[in-house]
Task: structure prediction
Amino acid sequence: PKPEPGAPGPFAYSNTDYIRSILDSANYQNIEIDSWSGELLIGRPGMSPKDVATFLFSSSFLVRSVQNNIAEVETTIFDEFTQELAKFYKNGGVYMPAKSWIISATK
Result:
């Protein structure tokens, strides 16, 4: 389900009006919000899709999402995740599309 606007989570700040309202309420001025889009290297250069999957499973929310599953289910999820990462493998690394806000303001 789609989260409520401003609800905690990885996309809480996807709405620039929401970001601006937070900064306005804290009396920030000269608020500038610029968008950045590009590709982000996941892991380190030279890591294979399987290496990246191992890294992400051991160091992020992914491990929590499968830790209560039986080993067979965890293996299936890991294998499918690795196959998806392989779609983004190029130039010796896994590069995925990314977007971020660059925000500046004065007080």
User: Anything to note?
Assistant: The two ends are 37 Å apart (CA to CA). The helical segments are 16-25, 49-59, 61-66, 71-86. The mean pLDDT is 87.
